[in-house]
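Instructor's aside before we start: the two examples that follow are unrelated to each other. I chose them only because their records fit on one page, so don't look for a connection. First example below.
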Amino acid sequence: MIPIHCYSKGVLHSEEGEVVQEFPVPLVVNGREIATLVASPHELNYLVAGFLRLQGFVTSPDDFELFSVCKDFGAANVRIKGTLPDKLKPVLTSGCGTGVTFSTPRPIQIDQKKEFTPAEVFSLMEELGKHSEKYRAHGGIHSAAVGDNDRMVLYAEDLGRHNTLDRIAGEALFKGIDLNGLMLVTSGRISTEMAAKSAQLGISLIASRTSPTDMAVKLCEESGITLIGYLRAATFQIYSHPERIRLPDKKIEGVTGVILAGGRSSRMGRDKSLLPYNDRPLIETIYNSLSGLFNDIVVVTDRPHEYGFLPCPKIPDILPGQGSLAGVHAGLTWSRDERIFVAACDMPHLDRELIRWLSGVSSAAPALVPESDGGIEPLHAFYTKAALPAIEAALTSARPKIIDLLAQIGAQIVPAAEVARHSQGFRSFMNLNTPEDYRNLLG
């Protein structure tokens, strides 16, 4: 039994459990060590005999002059009547249970400072599944991917689970991609050599849909790798270094997240909210950021059918054709909470910690608006229902401007110098307006 940390519904709890045993057996035949068999530790005599039979070295029990298999010492010593070839040429098979290494896996200490949230682990595994469905025309294939906190970096598939990691390592080598500190997700079991290869690459976290082996757990513990198994739906089990999993903070109470998706995207030339970003529509990135902060999310749009992939309500402007202020009005009117946080649909780098900090700034004003080096940011701001009468009045005037409204209602502006202490380079406010902006984002 080993300690296991189980994650479910935002909570980690400890329990004890068992993992599959992995047992290396050096095989000596006629005084020569010809292989190390890595297997389950039961009935090793059958394993050794069957291996030699299927390699064509024996055909009956009479071919054995000595047959000694000792589980306690983890060794098999066999003498057969026939002779072994002078040179044994290994064939690297594709089977998912076979990996090839030229030395005994040893722990390699990796950086232990990297942290990941459960949402990031689930997201990368989900991306692995999407790629598998997209590229695979048949079953029986293993897949693996490496990624950082918000995107997949490399993907590979092969008949053998070990080969997928070798393919990723090779592609990273040729493309000059540093895998240090990344996550690895895989469809197959994590065994010792998979863990050892990951440590060589500097992988910080390994996650699988199935269980690891006991030797993989031990090697990951010694190397500083977080090892996750049985990753299903919204649960998983952690077998080593649970401290790298950063549990989500409590959501901000009394605030609804509002995503404005009603713009015409005229300068971009196509709908900004649906631009591909990290293999998903851009607005999905916005939604994922806000869903980690607020219990309720709503998208304000006149095209709800285009956002069916988002698991939240979609509402139209109550007073259409009045720009972003109409979106703020619709969000405030719909919200059950007294306050809303408004974000435009083209902000790919929303900073949760900045938003959380802003939510705690003491203010009695109808709106709380941060300032960046480019001016105030009304589409990355908090509004209260106290602002509704002024907003409705403004919407009945000709071409209402949100900047004018903020001055009229006495919005509290958080100075750029203060914001900068919580948002380096004001990255959270970056938005996309032109094709050049989008190319820079991808690039």
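Example two begins here.
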Amino acid sequence: MATYGPDQRALFESRSSALYEELVSAGSFALTDERLQDGAELRPAFDLLVDLGLVVLDPEGEHWVAEDPSSIQGRIVAPLSQEGTRLLDESTQWAKAFGSLSQAWRRSPAATDRGPIAYLRDAAIGPYLNALVADVEEELLTAQPQTGRDAASLAAAALRDTAALERGVRMRTLYQHSARRSSVTHTYVAAVTARGAEVRTLDEFFNRMIVVDRRVAVIPAGDDLRVAVAVREPSVVAYLVDVFERAWERGRPYTNKDTSMMRDIAVEQRAMTIRMLIEGHADPQSAKRLGVSPRTYAGYVADLKEEYEAETRFQLGYVMGQRGVSGTERTTDTPTD
């Protein structure tokens, strides 16, 4: 039986669903419909509907007609749920199998002979993190700036992290506010919070970090995400935990969709954009610090230009300077006429 992943779901959500609704409204599509021919823009979305069984030929073979989605959903969703359950159970069993080995390692001289700091490169990072999280006993702290992880890596993280949560591990994760606009991040957060994890977002930039049981911290080696540093020195780990706790206190709960809080988040992102402009950072760097794409950041700047009736960035800076705007205000600065 065919299974469907994130790519097919994205196409289904963005194109196929609207096409299906149009078909239901129209009653049928002719075989000669130009939009459904080879090479047409909507052809991949239509092919997916046919492959799913949501669209079939009528008995005369002259028109495409819609099928009841309730009769199709179970066939598509059930295998994914079953596979997720199987993988989660398998990962839990592997974690248990490695548990005694990890305890033996920590008691051995070799665990300290290799020193308090280890460098991990490229392909070695993922397996190390998986093993580290599988070994967590009490608490997992993670800071994830930006939303650059793709659906596949987030799905793998969800399986890994939910397995830890099922064992009773406490978990807190910190994202930037921009993560609230990521559908794949929404899926991940829903999976972990359903099992007791806490997730918050923050406006300011911070570095990626994972801390396991307050004994091991994994951080990037500078700006090169291809190299990670595993730190076991207690004083350094305690310092990093303190940095996390301070950021956590300023964060806002991810699952809180209250209108006033969402308005506050928009104000914080606007203020951060103003600070980036005033400090003179290049657009790519500013976008990175906000956790958004350069195109989205350019949109933020364009909104500020419109708000302050400025045609250029120079004019924008001059007007904000005249009004004493610094980006540290806690309320929206509304331009005057």
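The first helix runs from residue 6 to 26.
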